[in-house]
Amino acid sequence: MMKFDGILARAEALLVERPVRTSLTEAEIKRISDYFYAYELSADEELRAEGIGDDPLFASIHQQLREAGVEFESPFSVEKNGSGLSDRMMHKIEESGSIVLPALKSALARQR
After folding, report:
1. pTM as predicted
2. How is 69-85 classified by DSSP, letter by letter?
3. Which residue has the higher pLDDT, 46 or 13?
4. Is the pLDDT of residue 85 over 80?
């Protein structure tokens, strides 16, 4: 019964209203933005350095079609041209940026 009372007490503590913060200090904003920037840089480095940027699914499908004798055209090559991202991955990143950037600019403009 004591364990059950403890569970109920913890559950009731979760229901206590906590004050909602409506603003952040400059230091908090800087810390959040620094973390986000570092996170994005890390993700970009992983994409480029660890081979994720080679787009293995695209390369696999390309190879399967070629081995099956299926004639097809692709604007992208699957051959590796040194280190870094493939042309297809760069195209995907640019395309994503062109979709997201206008929305972000619009949202930022409304915040000011």
Report:
1. 0.49
2. T-----SS--S--SSS-
3. 13
4. no
Question: Burial letters for 24-61: b for 16+ Cβ neighbours within 10 Å, e otherwise?
Answer: eeeeeeeeeeeeeeeeeeeeeeebeeeeebbbeebbee
pLDDT of amino acid 40:
93
- Tokens for 70, please give them: 């299926």
82 sits in the region (left: phi over 0; alpha: psi -120 to 50; else beta) called left
Half-sphere CA count of 72, side-chain side, radius 13 A: 14
Domain spans of the chain? 24-111
Average pLDDT over residues 65-93: 82
Phi, psi of 37, deg, nearest 5: -60, -45
